[in-house]
Amino acid sequence: MMTYKKWILRILRVAGLAALAVVLLTFAAVQYQQWMLRWRAERLMADMHQIRLYQSTWADAQRLMHRWGAWGHYDGSCTAADCRYEIDLEDASWGAWDRQRRSTGGWLLRHQTAYVMYRWLGGRSALVHFAFVVQDGTIWRTITWVNIAVPPKLLEGEDYGYVLIVEARSRQALRPSGTLGDVRGGEDQLAEHPYYKAGRPGGCTSCMMVKVNYSTYTPQSDIVRLTSFDFSCLTRLISCKMPEDLLPAAGAWHLYADPDPSYQAPLTPATAPKPCDIPIWVIGRDAVSAFVVEAVPTADQERAAYQEEESEDDFESEAASVRIVQQLKGAYAWPPGAVVEANTFPGRRHIPPPELPEHLTKGKRYILLTSGEDHGEAGALFADRCGVQEDTPENRRELEKGFAQNDNLRGPELR
């Protein structure tokens, strides 16, 4: 009987040690994977920071493709004339999700117990994506985004965790449009930092997302700061919780004030409209079209007894008839001499409040800048925020500086 008990205890001891060894080996394997992912991500980021837009050559791009070929791919052809190359680094669970989505695998995700254990052992569902565009022998665009899952709280069955998503991409202009894609962040940011805008989307209840868009002419030191990720988030046993943990630069923007991803910041109270302090060259860079116009007086204004009246309470918008003198930028819209309606102020009740009303003085010349892409058929143009400028030699020179920062990228912007 004693011998039998000894054998049972010995078997249990061996089984316990074997189970402990399996746990320790699994923990070591998960941690090794995470550290290797971090090591690769940090080196990819260092390589990315060596790129100089419009200056790094096809040879530089080829070195990147050779170094990261095991994780990179491209669609179609890839030549010095045109190439779009993508690099993806991911952990085992992100790879399993991708294989499951393509019906080629995904064992880890199909076995939820294994997946929960994987996360408890420090596994972080993560993707590090980097892409660049080569055109006419040099690199014109880059984009980086990092997704890292925040695991659910232990012993809380209703908590499924969320995902930190931070995206930083270069663009020729910081305006939202159908061809350029989504741009987050208010226009007034450009008064403080004219080379980039940062913001967050609404409606994502399972993520905290930060989007940074920066001009292709942004100083390199700022590009490095806006794309310097803290990849220790991949190896911490206590996970990162906020976007600024992943991108330290985001700490100054206060886009999320609470670790709950469904948190919505309170609406900013309406304030009085204010004058525009965005640099003129920035407005020129981001505008689709620019027109030199002359304000045309109406029949009422031509009467000697005319006196302009307006009510501060009821004032809704500002519009005037203008004669096109010259088009400085954009696709052809109207011939010189055409008379169109110019909307220069959307109204005091517009949210967020725009700049002060722009009253066009009859007979005076202005430069109107707009991001609208259809003008001629509509017979009207809508000036952008700060898009009414006096037609002076100095303003023209400043606008030309902004126009010069636009390029002719073939194909869509990186998304």
* Fraction of residues in H or I helices: 25-40%
Major pleated sheet:
7 strands, mixed
Helix count, DSSP H or I runs of 4 or more residues: 11
How does the overall form come out from the CA principal axes? elongated
Secondary-structure content class: alpha+beta
Total domains:
2
Question: How many beta-strand runs?
Answer: 13
How much strand?
15-25%
Low-confidence stretches: 269-273, 303-311
Side-by-side strand order of the widest sheet: 1-2-3-4-5-7-6
Radius of gyration: 28 Å
Distance between the termini: 72 Å
SSE string, helices as H and strands as E:
HHEEHHHEEEHEEHHHEHEEEEEH
> Taking all residues together, what is the mean pLDDT?
80
How does this model look, in words?
The chain has 415 residues and is of the alpha+beta class. It folds into two domains: 22-252, no CATH class; 280-299 and 315-403, OB fold (Dihydrolipoamide Acetyltransferase, E2P) (Beta Barrel), CATH 2.40.50.120. The protein is 28% helix and 23% strand. The chain is built from eleven helices and 13 strands. It has helices at 2-48, 58-67, 92-101, 107-110, 112-120, 189-192, 220-226, 243-246, 280-286, 299-302, 393-403, and strands at residues 72-74, 82-90, 126-135, 138-150, 162-171, 196-199, 207-215, 289-295, 318-329, 339-345, 365-370, 380-382, 388-390. It has a seven-stranded mixed beta sheet. Strand 6 and strand 7 (207-215) form a beta hairpin. The chain is elongated and about 110 Å long. The termini are far apart. The model is unreliable at 269-273 and 303-311 (pLDDT under 50).
